[in-house]
Specification:
It is a single chain. The protein has 372 residues and is mostly beta strands. The protein has a single domain, classed as Pectate Lyase C-like. 3% of the residues lie in helices and 44% in strands. The strands form 5 sheets. The chain has a 21-stranded parallel sheet that branches. It has a 9-stranded parallel sheet with strand order 7-10-13-17-20-23-26-29-32, with no helix packed on it. A hairpin with a 2-residue loop joins strand 34 and strand 35. The radius of gyration is 22 Å and the shape is elongated.
Length: 372
């Protein structure tokens, strides 16, 4: 459309009037920001928020494909909610699985939810539905009543290098994680969550709920190189997801399990690789499989120490469960009812029939497995 721009600059001080296309007053600033979004080219564009604080009393609505919203850094640009704010800071529910919102990028700013109204499903830092090729990067999100970065149907997207603190209530059963991605259906494209620092959040630091790669595809969802600590329930919670790689995370001091796998409705966790994580000082087990019909779960090379109930718990009954001998276990043993009907495989050692487990040795010492 003629006259629309590919880049729009927003400032929050009168002194920036000459270099800003829109100047916010510090009250109901979402009106200027949303107007600026609608003033961009219909093909997308870049919204640049200059240094300062922007105060909103309803959501910013990024309902444009190929939209990039960029601040000046987490210590320089902040969007803060006003008292009794009831929505998400960024919210767009206009897309669908068949027609996803494409190319949304939000980066380089802080999102302050301190004044949000009591938790509801919408009171999040981000709540944009059906995104493809999205990026959330270099954000500091804190004190939101529900999830910090939460969205359903997120595919081929990246969440990286964010700090997410104190998001969500500890009593919630859903919608209350640091990063929470739900109902992914049969996505053919990967989701990458990496390099984030998530702490003191409600349900879990990171939640994947029914995120699945399509059958016959070899792509995985990757959760790697994150620091996940002191969350009010789980560190990483995988509900009904399949083809997930959980690798090289530091998962410390969470109130329940460090990593937990669950069946979600009729969907069991499947094709999960948990490797090379440090899982330490969590309130329940280091790693738990709360699913009797989980399939193809591989756990290897993790350092598990000082978890209060032990390093490992499993309810698996119907599939082979592989324990690898390179646990690097410190002051822990594999405990709980490890119901195994298949074989137990140890790296570099012969398979053992589950009726005759006994004690299995590796270079780190004895691993004790009790059969329920």
């Amino acid at each position: 459309m003629a006259g629309r721009k590919s880049t729009i600059v927003i400032g929050n001080k009168r002194t920036e009037k000459e270099k800003a296309d829109f100047v916010c007053s510090g009250k109901q600033d979402q009106e200027s920001i949303n107007l600026a979004i609608q003033s961009l080219s219909p093909d997308g564009g870049r919204l640049l928020l200059l240094e300062g604080e922007y105060i909103i009393d309803s959501s910013v609505i990024p309902n444009l494909n190929n939209l990039e919203i960029v601040g000046q850094g987490i210590n320089r640009t902040k969007i803060r909610v006003s008292k009794d704010f009831r929505g998400a800071i960024f919210q767009d529910q206009s897309a669908s699985q068949d027609f996803p919102r494409k190319g949304l990028i939000i980066r380089n700013m802080s999102l302050d939810g301190t004044s949000m109204k009591k938790m509801a499903m919408s009171t999040k830092g981000n709540f944009c539905h059906s995104l493809k090729n999205a990026q959330f990067e270099n954000l500091h999100i804190y004190n939101t009543a529900a999830t910090g970065i939460g969205t359903d149907f997120l595919i081929n997207s990246t969440i990286r290098n964010n700090i997410i603190e104190n998001c969500g209530e500890s009593t919630a059963s859903t919608g209350s994680a640091g990063i929470g991605i739900g109902t992914g259906d049969d996505s053919e494209e990967p989701l990458i969550i990496t390099g984030n620092h998530v702490r003191s959040c409600g349900l879990a630091g990171i939640l994947l709920e029914s995120q699945k790669s399509a059958e016959g595809k070899f792509l995985h969802h990757i959760v790697s190189n994150n620091v996940i600590r002191e969350n009010k329930q789980w560190g990483i919670l995988i509900r009904g997801s399949r083809r997930v790689i959980i690798n090289s995370n530091m998962i410390v001091g969470n109130s329940k399990d460090g990593i937990a796998l669950e069946t979600y409705f009729s969907n069991p966790p499947k094709d999960i690789l948990i490797s090379n994580n440090i899982v330490q000082g969590n309130g329940f087990y280091g790693i738990s499989v709360y699913s009797q019909n989980a399939k193809s779960i591989e756990i290897l090379g993790n350092i598990l120490s000082e978890n209060q109930k032990g390093c490992f718990y499993s309810e698996m009954l119907k599939d082979e469960l592989s324990y690898f001998a390179n646990w690097k276990d410190v002051n822990n043993k594999i405990t709980g009812d490890c119901h195994v009907t298949g074989k137990i495989t140890l790296s570099g050692l012969p398979s053992r029939d589950p009726q005759n487990l006994g004690e299995l040795w590796n270079d780190q010492g004895t691993i004790k497995i009790s059969k329920g």
